[in-house]
Design goal:
Elements lengths: L13 E5 L3 H10 L5 E5 L5 H8 L4 E3 L13 E4 L4 H13 L3 E4 L12 E5 L2 E5 L6 H14 L4 H10 L1 H4 L6 H21 L4 H13 L7 E6 L10 H9 L2 E4 L5 H4 L7 E4 L11 H13 L3 E6 L9 H10 L3
Parallel strand pairs: 1-2, 1-4, 2-3, 4-5, 8-11, 9-10, 9-11
Antiparallel strand pairs: 6-7
Length: 322
């Protein structure tokens, strides 16, 4: 990964663009969706840019960019579609501390702009590091088709409800609430109209506050030959929901990537365990974490039913009613 993906806050910050043609228009159509203060420098800007300036959507200077024009800016786009002019303006922007993107010049850019699926405030960014922009657009089109237009409305309403949802215990209880909101209760309420969603959230929160906490649970997952695409849908779901993942040293990194980032990852082949870890130690770990009420995934290399001492681990859990 040459480019680390982040979401940069632009609210109230300066973004500067040099250029007034097609490349500039393409970037501005995206930038105008943000709350940044946009400054454009172009001796001969397209009519659309002039119209946006007249509507106070951006500040237009009808002249070439000069030293001092980028001071304090968060981002700079060189979009003059002229290699020499782009190099000149990019040098000014770099000297004045802005992150620089030169349109269609990946090598000299400090950042790239991904393909974006916009369901504000839900944003999906797709990047190929310049290797396959056609592929990025195809993925974008596929996601556009599958993500409902109401998703942004659900997210905005949910965002305003987050403090009230903090009444639920941190961790799985809160995740269960939000999962039911976004994938069940929320969409049902949206079918009746957005004004029905707040009441549905209130009812859902009351329901979850009165629920008994889920018992701890252990899912045994066989990692097979290490290809994550060979995992079953149930195995992927278990990894996505796990609070704790206890795994063998032969589990591939690609499979471990499917676990939540917040999950506690315990490698029983390293960090003091070693390849000769006593089976009793693994049994104790499974029991310890499951008794806390957590969702545990026991990842075993190969076929979990064939390799390793699966029967002993299950017996240890059964002995504690887990």
């Amino acid at each position: 990964m040459d480019h680390f993906p982040i979401f940069l806050s632009t609210k109230g910050r300066h973004v500067v663009l040099s250029g007034g043609g097609e490349a500039a228009l393409a970037k501005l159509r995206l930038l105008l969706k943000t709350e940044a203060r946009i400054h454009v420098f172009a001796p001969d800007p397209a009519p659309e840019i002039i119209a946006w300036a007249q509507a106070d959507r951006l500040i237009l200077q009808q002249r070439p960019l000069a030293a001092g024009d980028v001071a304090g800016a968060a981002l700079f786009y060189a979009a003059d579609e002229d290699a020499d002019e782009d190099a000149r303006t990019a040098a000014i922007a770099k000297a004045e501390g802005a992150l620089v993107n030169i349109v269609d010049n990946l090598h000299d850019s400090a950042f790239i702009t991904p393909a974006i699926v916009d369901r504000d405030p839900v944003t999906v960014a797709i990047g190929t590091e310049g290797a396959a922009p056609v592929l990025a657009r195809a993925i974008k089109a596929d996601l556009e088709e599958h993500l409902p237009s109401t998703l942004g409305t659900l997210a905005r309403i949910g965002k305003g409800f987050r403090k009230m949802a903090d009444a639920l215990p941190f961790g799985r209880a809160r995740r269960d609430f939000w999962r039911e909101y976004y994938f069940s209760a929320g969409p049902r309420a949206m079918d009746a109209g957005a004004d029905h969603v707040p009441a549905a959230l209130d009812a859902l929160l009351e329901d979850h506050q009165n629920r008994r906490a889920r018992d701890g649970h252990v899912a045994f997952v066989g990692g097979g030959p290490g290809d994550p695409e060979l995992l079953t849908l149930k195995a992927r779901r278990a990894l996505d929901e796990a609070d704790v993942v206890i795994y063998d040293r032969l589990i591939s990194p690609a499979i471990l990537e499917l676990a939540r980032r917040e999950a506690l990852m315990i490698d029983v082949g390293k960090e003091g365990f070693g390849p000769s870890t006593a089976q009793e130690t693994i049994n104790d770990l499974l029991v310890e974490h499951a008794r806390k009420g957590t969702q545990v995934v026991r990842l075993k290399s190969g076929d979990a039913t064939v390799f390793g001492r699966l029967d002993e681990e299950i017996e240890a859990l059964d002995a504690h009613g887990l």
